[in-house]
Amino acid sequence: QVQLVESGGGLVQAGGSLRLSCAASVTESIRSIYAMGWYRQAPGKQRELVARVTSGGSTYYADSVKGRFTISRDNAKNTVYLQMNSLKPEDTAVYYCSARRTPFAGDSWGQGTQVTVSS
Question: What is the CA radius of gyration of the chain?
């Protein structure tokens, strides 16, 4: 299990930006963690994958956020970021950080951080 703590959520107007941070408590560098990602869950909806970055640097983005969100990892700080630009009201959700140690391992989760985008 990897302990994850998210921060950076808040209330922002449509078109604005936020940067979420996810600090991982691990004995080794997050460089050794296979994949870290961001999910979100809006009220009444299923949790969905927003973005993911692997230890090799490969990234994945949901179609709904491509061109607006950027995921990055700072291995020295054991932290993963999600830069969110051009935010829309439909981006409103609780955002969760996840970590998967190996391709076949289960995910560890943070407690979530609320992002609210007003129109």
Answer: 13
pLDDT over 90 (residue 75):
no
Q: What is the arithmetic mean of pLDDT over 71-85?
A: 94
- What pLDDT, on the 0 to 100 scale, is given for residue 33? 87
| CA dihedral for 27, 29, 73, 46, sign (positive or negative) | negative
**pLDDT of 97:** 97
Look at phi and psi of residue 13 and say left if phi exceeds 0, alpha if psi is from -120 to 50, else beta: beta
Which of 1, 39, 6 shows the shortest CA–CA distance to 22? 6
Answer whether 38's CB lies under 8 Å from 71's CB. yes
Q: Which of 93, 105, 104, 113 is nearest to 48 (CA)?
A: 93
From CA 79, how far away is CA 22, in angstroms rounded?
5
